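User: Please predict the structure of the protein below. I'd like the answer in structure-token form so I can feed it into my own downstream comparison script.

Assistant: Understood. Taking the following sequence of 533 residues as input:
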Amino acid sequence: TAWGVAVRLGLAMLPRAIRWDEPDYLWLGRSLFSGRGYTIGPYPDLHYTPLLPVLVGPLTRLLPDLEWASAFWYVVLGAALVWPVYALGRAIFGPSVARGAAVLTACFPALTISPLYWGTMTEPPYLLLLFVGLYAAYRAWRGGCLRHHVLAGAALALAYLVRPEGALTFAWVAVFLLAAAGLRGDWRVRSWWARWGALVLAWLLVAGPYLLYLRLESGRWLLTGKVGVTLALGEGVVDRDPAAYDRAIASLDAKGEEIVWFSPQRFQEPGLLQQVQEAPGAVARRVALNLRAWYGTFFARQMFPSPLTILVALGLFALPWTRRRAADTLFLALACLPPFAFLFLHVEARFFAPLIPVLLLWAAAGAEALAWWLRGTWGAVRHGEAGREGPAWVGLGPWAAVVLVLLALWPGTLAAGRATLDFGHKEMGLWLREHTPPDAVVMARDLAVPLYAERGYAPAPHASYEEIVRYARRHGAAYWATDAYELTRVKPHLAYLLDPAQRPPGLEAVYQAESGHGLNLVFRLPAAEGGAP
């Protein structure tokens, strides 16, 4: 743990920029602890689950740098992941494999470095809570007492409150324990039903307030407010069409007042079941394309290098499967399934981070099997007879080799993560903080800009210029933070705004600067009659 804290602390001290989903979590945390409720701008949020905002919220008030509000939990909770991995490994494989799995987890670049650059900071708390829940669920299955059932339910509920897919893990755990009890004949035992009921009740008590919040705000029972609109935006991701992505989430609703992402209209988007019924071929195409994308993304050097699958295979098949070993393998395999629900939506590497600790448990078992073989072979060769083991240091060879390979991947993983950074929006936000009134509202596609600026926020719609100006006036936005990428790739019909000679009257570029990804601009929007923006 000390190693994990020290390494992550050093990584977090490198210059970085808040981006993608992380600004939403930070904004929600700051709003929640500033008396503005669970809101982004004027909108109650139904997309982002609340545990990370609850964690970062107090730190946004205490720390002078917003980036450290989320980086603090990346350091602390990311380093703590080794403990539930060790505990689960010890329960299934024994202490030797558990220690090895903990070491591999501590050294694995996709668990140590990559979360800092994935753009959400949800992975450290999610993985920690998920594997605490899986360990407790395993103990509950293997004859555990009431506290294991309660811990499993509570931990998996907290995991759901970090990321919605945590609900899928709870669902299979509850069904798995129910089925296992049926096979053992425990359904006739009243105390077993009490323990299983405690699992479900613990989950409902922890997750229930958020479920009720979703019900009150949406008018329906939901696990997440994302699914319909996420299915729609997934087409843009799969087809690599940023304009289609933006149209799915940022087009104006039927009333022309809000973007779809924040409009009640988003709940009218067809769900997955409806899409399967109406266009099964399109859904199958999406799954096939996403499966191909997953394979290329997951087995990349910066995620889970494919040579490690040799150790995984050894861990799975080097020893015969007893009935218990087969059941344990099934439990771990089921733990790998929930992320594959994203094949129906779209694929990002970070979605599949929960697979890594499970694969590392099997890889550690494979390294241990290889170490056992080396010690046995050494002893047989040296002493001329089977059954004599070599010295313990011989068995350290596979472990040392794997750790050295993982550490050798660190520079490349760090360089790849940092290569994706662009500080242009951060600089734009800091400029707005210094050069705009404190009550100014900034319209932007990237929430990080008004977050850094500490100004009000209006999301930039996918619409014509005239509609955008009317929308901005309705939301009190006097400034529009944009960039060349947005104006050429995301909203190509607005590319003419990059040419000063073609800009409409009253649209003034008050800031422009080049960054790694192109020109960044802040426009002062034309004032309405009477001088209001």
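That's the full token string. The longest strand covers residues 508-515.
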